[in-house]
User: Fold this.
Amino acid sequence: MPKKLEKRITADGKTVSWRARVRVTTPDGPRWASRTFEKQGEAKAWISEAEGRRRRGKAVEASREPLGKYLRRWLDDIAAPTIRPNTLAQYRWNLDRYIIPVLGGLPLAELSAGDIAAVYSGMRDRGLSERSVKLTHAVLRRALRWAVSDGLLWRNPADAVELPRRRRTEKRAMNPDEARAFVEAAAETRHGCLFTVLLLTGMRPSEAFALRWGDLEGLDGPEPVANVRRALVRYVERSDDGPSRSGWRFDEPKTEAGRRVVPLAPALVPMLTAQRAEVAKRRLKAGSAWQDFDLIFTGEDGGPLD
Assistant:
């Protein structure tokens, strides 16, 4: 029977390594899993960890499942039930666009920090922002963390990848003259009221797209307000077996602070009045095809803007 720990010396007697072995059970029967280390302590630690994993019913060896197949399975089975649809869509986008085309065929067991770092380097070389790299890294790291907890990997190779410190740039807001010029230019477009609401209230676009007439109060008074109660969420469901499906829904704000009352500048009142008249014309033109969601900003059929 092979030894669990074996010292190995090269022919010239200068290089020493340690080969560690652990007995494992596979569908084809029992066999020995082995790894080679430069230090005896590392080899002993591997044996101890491997035997502990075996006792707990965990895999002793890393999975040979292709990374791309694993990531799609993780998105569908693990991530989808626990995160918001728009967040899931962002996860899919980053993995499908940046990780899977490059590393998708690589077995989990062979994935290294160097492989991951090379992908990020390529993203930067193509001019992608540090934020894109950081978001991609966060998604991949989370997916591989679950692989570790499920016994498919020993360690998370993404943990060893160091991202460059993000350069902080000074943010610059419009000055009053620029804001005035923006509002004047926006007024010449179909979405002038929407652009001005976004500028003067600080709402997220998804919140403004979900705003209903019933959310407005006090338009005839001195202190008009808008109640932010929901957001429009768009999502894409990808399938390996068929075409992608897309859709939308109204969702609760992410946090309690997201449900809030927003003061409306007096200048918005006549603009909203004109917007209501425009929506009424649109509704009359659409006839029976009109979707009545009571939205302030609508498409031609009353549905939300895309």
Residues 238 and 288 are 32 Å apart (CA to CA). The first strand starts at residue 5 and ends at 9.
